[in-house]
């Protein structure tokens, strides 16, 4: 089990809404830890990595920019190498018209070698590369691939694992049955 968890697949729980609607708070996902030994990281993939500002924490975000890409953000539009990126997964809040002009601007910037530009799908509620900069590819733990369990975690009143399991089993309405087995993309 230790070898499998270390090198093959690892389970993670989604604690925040930065990847909504793709990943829900309370989703439990499996991450493929060996895939990047055989193939390169691709734009659009959702990956788990060590948070650059505190490597004891794991973050999950979507790969937006790859090494060598020229990236620019113009309001709600991400532009890669001069072409608008099609992002059906990205969500933004509708800000009042008196908000300060465009949502945000960045770049153009060239992504350095061995670095990635990461963004959450819930763009207005994600602490990502727009805040902490580029991600070193050596900090990537793996690619998220499936939701194996999902529960409305805000409704669970216990903090211990055993009490939480008992509560969920005795209240099956807390389980998001439609998310079980959902592929992450």
Percent of residues in helices: 10-25%
- Could you spell the SSE succession in H and E letters? HEEEEEEEEEHEEHE
Please identify the structural class as seen in this structure.
Answer: mainly beta
Count of distinct strands: 12
Poorly predicted runs are 96-102
Largest sheet: 8 strands, antiparallel
Rg, nearest Å? 18 Å
Distance between the termini: 26 Å
Number of helices: 3
Strand content: 25-35%
Morphology = globular
Mean of all residue-level pLDDT scores: 87
Description:
- The chain is mainly beta and 185 residues long.
- It has helices spanning 2-7, 129-132, 161-170, and strands at 9-13, 27-32, 46-50, 58-65, 70-74, 77-80, 83-84, 105-110, 115-119, 135-136, 140-150, 182-183.
- It starts with a helix and ends with a strand.
Task: Give a short overview.
With 185 residues, the chain is mainly β.
């Amino acid at each position: 089990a230790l070898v499998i968890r270390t090198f093959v697949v690892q389970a993670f729980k989604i604690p925040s809404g930065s990847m909504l609607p793709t990943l829900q708070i309370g989703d439990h996902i499996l991450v493929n830890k060996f895939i990047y030994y055989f193939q390169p990281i691709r734009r659009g993939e959702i990956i788990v990595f060590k948070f650059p500002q505190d490597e004891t924490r794991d973050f999950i975000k979507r790969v937006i920019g790859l090494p060598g890409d020229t990236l620019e953000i113009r309001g709600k539009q991400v532009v890669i190498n001069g072409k608008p990126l099609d992002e059906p997964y990205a969500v933004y809040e509708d800000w009042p018209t008196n908000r300060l002009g465009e949502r945000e601007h960045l770049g153009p910037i060239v992504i350095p070698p061995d670095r990635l530009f990461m963004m959450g799908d819930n763009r207005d509620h994600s602490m990502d590369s727009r805040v902490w900069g580029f991600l070193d590819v050596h900090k990537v733990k793996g690619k998220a691939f499936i939701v194996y369990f999902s529960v409305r975690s805000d409704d669970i009143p216990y903090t211990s694992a055993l009490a939480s399991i008992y509560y969920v089993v005795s209240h099956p309405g807390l389980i998001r049955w439609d998310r079980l087995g959902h592929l992450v993309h």
